[in-house]
C-alpha cells in the first residue's frame, strides 16, 4: 500500500473525507492486492482486543468477504445477495467481536450501489450471542440473543422491523422520525434511548424508555401513548390491555453488557430466557410449577450454575441431556428438562 492509498485508508478510519473518498476506500479491496492490506488492519484490530487467542487466522473470513465484494461488483445484486452478505458480517461480529468499522464499511459499500428497487437488509443475532451495529443514519442498536432486525436501503424513512429484544440509541433527526415495528405494534421516536421486546411468539410487547420521548401505538388501535423517561409500557395483544409504571430503565437494558436478568418472570418465561441466552432447548414438563417466579442478575454464570440456584429457591429439579447426532450427521441442541421436585 503506497502513501496515497494509506492516506485514503487512514482518512476513512478517522471518519474524514467525502463520499468520493469513501468510494476510493472500497475500491482498494476490489483487487487481490487489497487482501493483504485488509488482513493486516483486521489483525491489528484483533490484537488490540484483550483476548488470550489474539492471533486467530483471519484468512478464511477475508476470503469470504473479498469473494462477496468481487461477486457484487461483477453481478447484479438483489435482496437475497445483500441479506446473505450482511448475515455473514453480523455473524463475524458476534463470534469474533471485530470492530464495527469493518461491518459499517461493507454496509456502506453495498448502500453506495445504485439499486432500481429498495434492498432488504437483515441482521440476525445468533442464539447465545449479542450483536451491536450502526444503522445508516448513525443510530446504534444492540440485538439480544435470537433477535432479528431488518430495514430497507435507502434508509430515508428510518423504519425498522424487530423480532425479539433490541436496544436503540437513536440518532436525532427532527424531520425524520425513527419507527420500530414488531409484534403488531410500533414505536415512533425522534432521538432517544429505549429497549423493546417484540417476540413474535409471545403476546406481550414491552417498551422501556431511558432517554427522550417515544410514542407507542398498537395495531388496530386509534389511540397512541406517549412515554417519558423511566417509564415501562407493557401491552398484551391478546387481552388488548396496556399497563405502565415507573422503573429503573438501566436494569432492562443490562443485557447489552452481558447480564442475564430475571425480573420475576414465571417458569415458562424463565425457560424461554434461558433457552435464548444459552442456545439450548428448555422444556418445563410439570404444569404445577408454571407460576413459580424467579429474580436474579447473572453475569458470567454458566447454565448449570443458574439451574442450581433456581433449584435452591424453588421445589424444582432438572435433567440436562447432551446434544445428540441423528442418522444424517446433524447434532441437536442440548436439552434441559425442568420438573417438580
UniProtKB/TrEMBL annotation:
Domain named Protein FecR C-terminal: residues: 260-324
Residue ranges of the TM segments: 88-111
Keywords, ordered alphabetically: Membrane, Transmembrane, Transmembrane helix
Entry keyword annotation includes Transmembrane helix: yes
Gene Ontology molecular function, alphabetical: sigma factor antagonist activity
Domain FecR protein: 127-215
UniProt name for this protein: FecR family protein
Organism: Marinilabilia salmonicolor
Amino acid at each position: 500500500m503506497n502513501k496515497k492509498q494509506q492516506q485514503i485508508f487512514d482518512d476513512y478510519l478517522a471518519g474524514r473525507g467525502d463520499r468520493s473518498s469513501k468510494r476510493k476506500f472500497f475500491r482498494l479491496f476490489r483487487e487481490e492486492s487489497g487482501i493483504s492490506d485488509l488482513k493486516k488492519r483486521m489483525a491489528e484490530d484483533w490484537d488490540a482486543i484483550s483476548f488470550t487467542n489474539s492471533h486467530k487466522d483471519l484468512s478464511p473470513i477475508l476470503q469470504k468477504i473479498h469473494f462477496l465484494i468481487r461477486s457484487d461488483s461483477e453481478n447484479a445484486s438483489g435482496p437475497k445477495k445483500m441479506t446473505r452478505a450482511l448475515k455473514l458480517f453480523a455473524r463475524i461480529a458476534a463470534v469474533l467481536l471485530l470492530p464495527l468499522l469493518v461491518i459499517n464499511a461493507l454496509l456502506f459499500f453495498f448502500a453506495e450501489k445504485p439499486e432500481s428497487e429498495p434492498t432488504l437488509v437483515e441482521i440476525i443475532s445468533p442464539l447465545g450471542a449479542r450483536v451491536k451495529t450502526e444503522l445508516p443514519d448513525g443510530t446504534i442498536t444492540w440485538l439480544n440473543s435470537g433477535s432479528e432486525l431488518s430495514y430497507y436501503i435507502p434508509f430515508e424513512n428510518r423504519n425498522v422491523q424487530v423480532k425479539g429484544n433490541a436496544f436503540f440509541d437513536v440518532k436525532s433527526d427532527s424531520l425524520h422520525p425513527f419507527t420500530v415495528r414488531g409484534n403488531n405494534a410500533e414505536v415512533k421516536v425522534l432521538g432517544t434511548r429505549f429497549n423493546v421486546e417484540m417476540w413474535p411468539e409471545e403476546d406481550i410487547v414491552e417498551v422501556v424508555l431511558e432517554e427522550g420521548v417515544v410514542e407507542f401505538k398498537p395495531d388496530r388501535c386509534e389511540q397512541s401513548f406517549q412515554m417519558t423517561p423511566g417509564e415501562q409500557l407493557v401491552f398484551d395483544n391478546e387481552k388488548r390491555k396496556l399497563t405502565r409504571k415507573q422503573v429503573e430503565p438501566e436494569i432492562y437494558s443490562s443485557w447489552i453488557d452481558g447480564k442475564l436478568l430475571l425480573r420475576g418472570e414465571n417458569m415458562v418465561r424463565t425457560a424461554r430466557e434461558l433457552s435464548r441466552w444459552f442456545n439450548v432447548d428448555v422444556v418445563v414438563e410439570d404444569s404445577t410449577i408454571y407460576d413459580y417466579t424467579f429474580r436474579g442478575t447473572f453475569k458470567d454464570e454458566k447454565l448449570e450454575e443458574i439451574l442450581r440456584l433456581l433449584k435452591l429457591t424453588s421445589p424444582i429439579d432438572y435433567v440436562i441431556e447432551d446434544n445428540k447426532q441423528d442418522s444424517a450427521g446433524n447434532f441437536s441442541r442440548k436439552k434441559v428438562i425442568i420438573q417438580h421436585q
